[in-house]
Design goal:
This protein has 187 residues and is mainly α. The chain has eleven helices and no strands.
Length: 187
């Protein structure tokens, strides 16, 4: 937070945060909660918004959001909501859009989108729709098409589409159709 204008400092901070928040054991979940309580989610989003052309920062920012927002328990869903409230969905979409040829940004962006858009409750469905409305579906399909030989992009892109396009209501069916129209079936 002390050097918001320095993209390199912000990128490294995001990388450290992503590493510190990796893990699904009790200690990992506690680190995620501690990071969220300290305002890390908001700081990552602000850094991503401030430096949209810094590919390394975008990659590490998406990676940090991936790890901090992982978890399908109540605490994980609350962190995802906090991220959405901070503008993470739009920041992830902007990263995917700004760096289509950078496989690392595409991989981490897709996984971050998958994690923020998890859940079948009203909040999860709202996140899915927000990602779709921001152009996330088309950008994930574009990532799959641009990086057919990169297994990690393929895996995380499929995870993002699985989460964003889930839902049996009319909006969920529309998201599925939108993915198909964008070329997801062929990708």
């Amino acid at each position: 937070r002390a050097h918001p204008q320095e993209a390199g400092v912000q990128a490294e901070g995001c990388a450290v945060l992503g590493n510190a928040c990796y893990g699904t054991d009790a200690a990992g979940r506690a680190r995620k909660q501690r990071a969220a309580a300290a305002g890390a989610i908001e700081a990552v989003v602000v850094a991503m918004q401030a430096h949209p052309q810094a590919a390394g920062l975008q990659e590490h920012g998406c990676g940090a959001l991936t790890n901090v927002c992982s978890g399908d328990d109540a605490a994980g869903r609350a962190r995802s909501q906090r991220a959405a409230d901070a503008g993470a969905i739009e920041a992830i979409v902007a990263a995917l859009q700004a760096h289509p040829q950078v496989a690392g940004v595409q991989q981490d962006g897709c996984l971050a989108m998958a994690n923020v858009c998890v859940g079948s409750d009203a909040t999860g469905l709202a996140h899915k729709q927000r990602a779709a409305d921001a152009g996330g579906i088309e950008l994930v399909v574009a990532a799959l098409q641009a990086h057919p030989q990169v297994a990690e992009v393929q895996e995380e892109g499929c995870a993002a589409l699985r989460n964003v396009c889930s839902g049996t209501d009319a909006a969920g069916r529309a998201r599925k159709q939108r993915a198909a129209a964008a070329g997801a079936i062929e990708a």
